[in-house]
Amino acid sequence: MISSIILNDSEDTWTWSLGGNFFTVRSARCQIDGEFLPDQGHSTRWNQIIPKKVNIFVWRASRDRLPSRWNLSRRGIEVNSLNCPICDAGTETSFHTLWACSLASLMIALCRRILRYVRGTLDYGLQLHVSSTTQLIVYTDADWAGCPVTLSRSSAEVEYRGIANVVAETTWIRNLLRELHTS
Ligand SMILES: [Zn+2]
C-alpha cells in the first residue's frame, strides 16, 4: 500500500478541497448549508442590518420552529391547553401567534401606523433660526405619537426616561455654555 505513494522533497502543505485550495469560512458555510439545511427557496444568510436575535427568530418562524403550544405538543411535551393564552380563540400555532391572534393584528396595525407616520414625515425636520433670546428651551416627547392604545406603565416609564435624558442633556449644555461664558 505504501509503495503506491510517491514522495517528493517539497514542503508539506494543507489543502482545502471545498471551493478552492485554501480554507475560507464562506466555503465551509456553503458546504454546511448544502448538506444540512433544507432548501426552501430562500437564502439562509443573516441580514446584518438587524440584530442576530431577530434573524434567528425569523429563521425559526420561517421553518415553523417556534415553541408554540402546538409545536410543543407535537414533540411530546405536555401542555395544559393548545389554545392561545392571549385570545383563547384558536390553537396556538406559529401562524396564529404571528398573524391570526388579536394581539398580532393589533401589533401589525400599530406597525402600519408607525410606518405611515414615518412615510408622511420624511420631509420634516428641525429648523434652527437665530434667536435674540439666550434662554435654553428643551422639549421631550415619548408618548408613542399620541397613540391611546399604547398607554401603559411601560410607556409611562419611557416618559420618565425621556425627561431624565433631556434634563441630563440640558445640564450638560448649560455647563458648556457657562464655560464658554455665553450665559
Ligand atoms: Zn391568540
Biggest sheet details: none
Order of helices and strands: HHHHHH
Q: Helical content, roughly?
A: 40-55%
Strand content: under 5%
Bound molecules: zinc ion
Number of strands: 0
Distance between the termini: 91 Å
Q: What spatial form do the alpha-carbon principal axes imply?
A: flat
Number of domains: 3
Count of runs of 4 or more consecutive helical residues = 6
Low-confidence region ranges: none
What is the averaged pLDDT score? 83
Rg of Cα set: 29 Å
Structural class: mainly alpha
Condensed summary:
Keywords: Nucleotidyltransferase, RNA-directed DNA polymerase, Transferase. With 183 residues, the protein is an all-alpha fold. Helix content is 45%, strand content 0%.
Features:
mainly alpha; RNA-directed DNA polymerase; 45% helix; Reverse transcriptase domain, reverse transcriptase zinc-binding domain protein; RNA-directed DNA polymerase activity; nucleotidyltransferase; 183 residues; binds zinc ion; transferase
Per-chain topology:
Blueprint lengths: L24 H12 L15 H11 L6 H6 L19 H7 L1 H19 L32 H27 L4
Please describe what this structure looks like.
This protein is mainly alpha-helical. The chain folds into three domains: 15-45, no CATH class; 48-125, no CATH class; 128-183, no CATH class. Helices cover 45% and strands 0% of the residues. The protein contains six helices and no strands. The chain has helices at residues 25-36, 52-62, 69-74, 94-100, 102-120, 153-179. Helix 4 (94-100) packs across helix 5. The longest helix is centred in the last third of the chain and has 27 residues, at 153-179. The chain is flat. Zinc ion (ZN) binds next to loops.
